[in-house]
Amino acid sequence: MGRPHELAVPPGADAASLARHLNRAHDDFVSTGRTDPAVRSIVTDSWQRSLASGLDPEIGLASVVLDDDALAEIRALHPLAAGMPVIRRLLVESAADAGHLVAVSDAAGQLLWVEGSSSLRARAESMHFVPGADWSEASAGTNAPGTALALDRPVQIFGPEHLARPVTPWSCSAAPIHDPDTGAVLGVLDLTGTAEVASVQGLSLVRATVAAVEAELRIQRLHPPTSGSVAGAGWSMPSLDVLGARGATLRHGTTTTRLSLRHSELLLLLADRPGGWRAGELAVALSDDEQAQVTIRAELSRLRRVLGPLQLASRPYRLENAVATDVAQVRDELAAGRLRRAVALYRGPVLPDSTAPAVQRLRDELHLLVRSSLLASDDVDAILTFADTAHGRDDFEVWEQALRILPSTSPRYAQVETRVALLDDELG
């Protein structure tokens, strides 16, 4: 009789008896290729994918693909670095006490952090469960983080459900972590240890922590750390967010203001050109129709009333205070070669509802800059993160680049190949 699709050890099941049956089913599959109907389909499907990738189930070990320098660089730039304090507080501390490990991978299956019980970390080194190792199915066989990544859903793997023999003494529960704005897979959170990790409680802990991490990422983007100060006031530099938003969000000090679309357009253009605009230039920038300069002046007068301490000067119209924008942040990250951070910041096109010619140009220029950087890159994690978003989902060239550089053994290769074929058919 089969087990529930998601739970590896259902409530009330005898873990020791289940392990004995799974060991026999595992041995039979490895020697004959036959699958036992009592083994969950999520497991047997993964076994078959793992074998197809060339994994040796008797001696296969995950590849360690990142050296210390590469690991440090990816950790520093990865968006999940911001979620690690939450993971440590909610999961790592209790895991260490219980004798378990907590691991966080990127979207390609590379382990970036492995924390928890020090004695268990030392034991886990023998199966290459270490930072820098590739725990995708193709590299490590059936395992919770790799299979969760392949399926984009929470997964538990109990003992002998692992395909690679060196991993069968362990159990694990894992769930993908998604970007709260775009839905892209950022990585996977995994809890590894004894059989109790594959319980209902183990998976619940992982899911709750993932939800908390995604909430923390959302909160940090709503209240990002600011730098600099408003001249003469001693306040943090105001910031303006316009990416993927119908209207901009302006933050200064502890105040957050949601702007109308017209005020969003005006403030973005003013922030993006410190030298300022003449009224006639702004009229052309905002509309293809001829707008009376008096109308622009009236809008700017209304804008002044919502700017708080920000000073709007005239002749030309300009901001007296520097305003940080998420547009400028993305440009800066790309210029510095920090592609993953740029993709994480790029939550969507600039003010997508705006029809103002100058905003449309800015929108197109930034999108082209992000795309061209991705198409010239071999960073598959950044490319897939962009491709998974609403603004990258139908981008044939980006998916084609992902397929070009993705190893055929990757857990996402088949999905990317299918997506490229589908887009190719749609585009004729």
From TrEMBL:
One Pfam family named in its UniProt record: GAF
Domain GAF per the UniProt entry, residue ranges: 119-213
Protein origin, superkingdom: Bacteria
Family annotation (InterPro entries): GAF, GAF-like_dom_sf
Protein name per its UniProtKB record: GAF domain protein
Lineage: Bacteria, Bacillati, Actinomycetota, Actinomycetes, Propionibacteriales
